[in-house]
TrEMBL record:
Listed Pro residues bias regions: 80-89
Group of enzyme by EC: hydrolase
Biased composition (Basic residues): 101-113
Binding site for Ca(2+): 599
InterPro entries: 6hp_glycosidase-like_sf, Glyco_hydro_47, Glycosyl_Hydrolase_47, Seven-hairpin_glycosidases
Catalytic activity: N(4)-(alpha-D-Man-(1->2)-alpha-D-Man-(1->2)-alpha-D-Man-(1->3)-[alpha-D-Man-(1->3)-[alpha-D-Man-(1->2)-alpha-D-Man-(1->6)]-alpha-D-Man-(1->6)]-beta-D-Man-(1->4)-beta-D-GlcNAc-(1->4)-beta-D-GlcNAc)-L-asparaginyl-[protein] (N-glucan mannose isomer 8A1,2,3B1,3) + 3 H2O = N(4)-(alpha-D-Man-(1->3)-[alpha-D-Man-(1->3)-[alpha-D-Man-(1->6)]-alpha-D-Man-(1->6)]-beta-D-Man-(1->4)-beta-D-GlcNAc-(1->4)-beta-D-GlcNAc)-L-asparaginyl-[protein] (N-glucan mannose isomer 5A1,2) + 3 beta-D-mannose; N(4)-(alpha-D-Man-(1->2)-alpha-D-Man-(1->2)-alpha-D-Man-(1->3)-[alpha-D-Man-(1->2)-alpha-D-Man-(1->3)-[alpha-D-Man-(1->2)-alpha-D-Man-(1->6)]-alpha-D-Man-(1->6)]-beta-D-Man-(1->4)-beta-D-GlcNAc-(1->4)-beta-D-GlcNAc)-L-asparaginyl-[protein] (N-glucan mannose isomer 9A1,2,3B1,2,3) + 4 H2O = N(4)-(alpha-D-Man-(1->3)-[alpha-D-Man-(1->3)-[alpha-D-Man-(1->6)]-alpha-D-Man-(1->6)]-beta-D-Man-(1->4)-beta-D-GlcNAc-(1->4)-beta-D-GlcNAc)-L-asparaginyl-[protein] (N-glucan mannose isomer 5A1,2) + 4 beta-D-mannose
Organism taxonomic ancestry: Eukaryota, Metazoa, Chordata, Craniata, Vertebrata
Gene symbol of the encoding locus: MAN1C1
Protein name according to UniProt: alpha-1,2-Mannosidase
One Gene Ontology MF term: calcium ion binding
Source organism (scientific name): Saimiri boliviensis boliviensis (Bolivian squirrel monkey)
Cofactor(s) listed: Ca(2+)
Membrane protein topology class: Single-pass type II membrane protein
Length: 619
């Protein structure tokens, strides 16, 4: 509309407002903008919104973002030192970190309760680590980290002198080679697959998998990298929404977080382990208390274990180590109560010939199938029994008794010696034996060696010899292949011994169980044969599994020109290379007097306290 120019006429603004009205409107608008941006940057839990407006902060090389299970902690505030975990002082020595770091002041307990992740992480430095006891918000809970360190009988990284001063030797060169393999495997993962579950080295990308919404490789790599003093020590990836195996979350994430806390003292690991453990508790809400197998952090659906289906022995039976430590670090007895109830169910239920079948209904509490295996589906249940006894400072007599009773039944009904003199543990299906042994069952040599010392006196020498014979059989499964790597399963029938009989069992996916037994047998006997066998594995890995961008499994161990499966499994870094490194290291590096390894090779400390403690108890 054309406005006429009339003397004394003041035209209105384009919005139909006069000048005083326009001034008031602009004043209101500026106040509103100020309020919005103030809320954005000052209110708690606004980090997601900040990322919409702010460029991401540059992190120091080699450090990853530590993510909260719910919410986020700014990365700069939770970065650990880029160096490997420091050696723990021997008993009676002062902790130098408590003098050097202002973040670990003595007497640093706060009287006020932390109000968020940032406050929780900073309120717990020094002699005591303060947290609130779940369910009792007003009562402070203290974990004395320095007292824990002082009770260790050996420094974590051993007493070996600085390697720069160590005389050149064949063993040192072998150890350095294994360290280089770890560096190469980790750097390849970091370059091509960071944030994904696993690396695919042939296609140089990452692999997510069908079930696990979790990037497990970074957690699994953490302790191997820390142990080997590799400069790049990552932290932990974001726990993404999605379904995951209860077992995998426990042994990989919770086990890794607990191990990281005990080795580094970084409080953020303790907080995350407890919070993640709390998120798993609804899985135990079944008529028997046996947990369901699959959890969903997104929907709250707790899995496939309903009436007519079953939970797996190796999964629900491999929670004890981690859950007792969750009670020890949180003061919340619910974690210990959940796993003790599992034991109660297993002791009460009738077992065929004293054997533990692999499948149990969490609804009825009855065995679903009579399939018994010391390999896949059953393996780590037996391992956790003897390790619970050792981790408790040899006070958990219930675990000890269950272990030796189970071992006696295994010897009676599953143990066999082939016509060629090879000792193996068969699988049992309703009374009928499958004369095969899986690669996963080859951990049993190390397990039996570990438990030999505490057996009845007349059985100790027998168990040591049994451990050696089983480990020799597993070595034969490697030695009889063209690649000197072992198949997934090997049979004893039709005149063939310790070899796979079909292509579907001839693959090798970088598994650790055989070298795990080599490590335990070496520490028990110092027989040089175990280092010789371990070095054979190193050479075979280099020749047949190393690719341009990482290590890959192979599809046929009986072919000298194998096809790669294009997967660098996360347990290759967490377990296989770690056990090889320990095999060529001194015994006081992660001494077995101070540490037990969970089934994913994360070290957890033995209870050396004078009292039975909050979690361990006496059974």
């Amino acid at each position: 509309m054309l406005m006429r120019k009339v003397p004394g006429f003041v035209p209105a603004s384009p919005w139909g407002l006069r000048l005083p009205q326009k001034f008031l409107f602009l004043l209101f608008l500026s106040g509103l903008v100020t309020l919005c941006f103030g809320a954005l940057f000052l209110l708690p839990h606004s980090s997601r919104l900040k990322r919409l407006f702010l460029a991401p902060r540059t992190q120091q090389p080699g450090l990853e973002v530590v993510a909260e299970i719910a919410g986020h902690i700014p990365a700069r505030e939770q970065e650990p030192p880029p160096n490997p975990a420091p050696a723990v002082p021997a008993p009676g020595e002062d902790d130098p970190s408590s003098r050097a770091s202002p973040r670990r002041r003595k007497g640093g307990l706060r009287r006020t309760r932390p109000t968020g992740p940032r406050e929780e992480a900073t309120a717990a430095r020094g002699n005591g680590i303060l947290a609130s006891r779940p369910g009792d918000e007003g009562v402070p809970f203290r974990f004395d980290f320095n007292a824990f360190r002082s009770r260790l009988r050996h420094p974590v990284l051993g007493t070996r002198a600085d390697e720069s001063q160590e005389p050149q030797s064949r063993v040192r060169a072998q150890r350095e080679k294994i360290k280089e393999m770890m560096q190469f495997a980790w750097q390849s993962y970091k370059r091509y697959a960071m944030g994904k579950n696993e690396l695919r080295p042939l296609t140089k990308d990452g692999y997510e998998g069908n079930m696990f919404g979790i990037s497990v490789a970074r957690v699994n790599c953490l302790k191997g990298l820390c142990l080997m003093a590799v400069p790049t020590v990552p932290l932990l990836s974001v726990l993404q929404s999605g379904e995951a195996s209860l077992f995998e979350v426990n042994i990989r994430y919770i086990g890794g977080l607990l191990s990281a806390f005990y080795l580094t003292g970084e409080e953020v690991f303790r907080i995350k382990a407890i919070r993640l453990g709390e998120k798993l508790l609804p899985a135990f809400n079944t008529p028997t208390g046996i947990p369901k197998g699959v959890v969903s952090f997104k929907s709250g659906n707790w899995g496939w274990a309903t009436a007519g289906s079953s939970s797996i022995l190796a999964e629900f039976g491999s929670l004890h180590l981690e859950f007792l430590h969750l009670t020890e670090l949180s003061g919340n007895q619910v974690f210990a109560e959940k796993v003790r109830n599992i034991r109660k169910v297993l002791r009460k239920i009738e077992k065929p010939f004293g054997l533990y079948p692999n499948f149990l209904s969490p609804v009825s509490g009855n065995w679903v199938q009579h399939h018994v295996s010391v390999g896949g589906l059953g393996d780590s249940f037996y391992e956790y029994l003897i390790k619970s006894w050792l981790m408790s400072g040899k006070t958990d007599t219930e675990a000890k008794n269950m272990y030796y009773e189970a071992l006696e039944a295994i010897e009676t009904y599953l143990l066999n010696v082939s016509p060629g003199g090879l000792t193996y543990i068969a699988e049992w299906r309703g009374g009928i034996l499958d004369h095969k042994m899986g690669h996963l069952a080859c951990f049993s040599g190390g397990m039996i060696a570990l438990g030999a010392e505490d057996a009845k006196e007349e059985k100790r020498a027998h168990y040591r010899e049994l451990a050696a014979q089983i480990t020799k059989t597993c070595h034969e499964s490697y030695a009889r292949s063209d690649t000197k790597l072992g198949p997934e399963a090997f049979w004893f029938n039709s005149g063939r011994e310790a070899v796979a009989t079909q292509l579907s069992e001839s693959y090798y996916i970088l598994r650790p169980e055989v070298v795990e037994s080599y490590m335990y047998l070496w520490r028990q006997t110092h027989n040089p044969i175990y280092r010789e066998w371990g070095w054979e594995v190193v050479l075979a890995l280099e020749k047949y599994c190393r690719t341009e961008a990482g290590f890959s499994g192979i599809q046929d161990v009986y072919s000298s020109t194998p096809n790669h499966d294009n997967k660098q499994q996360s347990f290759f870094l967490a377990e296989t290379l770690k056990y090889l490194y320990l095999l060529f290291s001194e015994d006081d590096l992660l001494s077995l007097e101070d540490w037990v390894f969970n089934t994913e090779a994360h070290p957890l400390p033995v209870n050396h306290s004078d009292s039975s403690g909050r979690a361990w108890g006496r059974h």
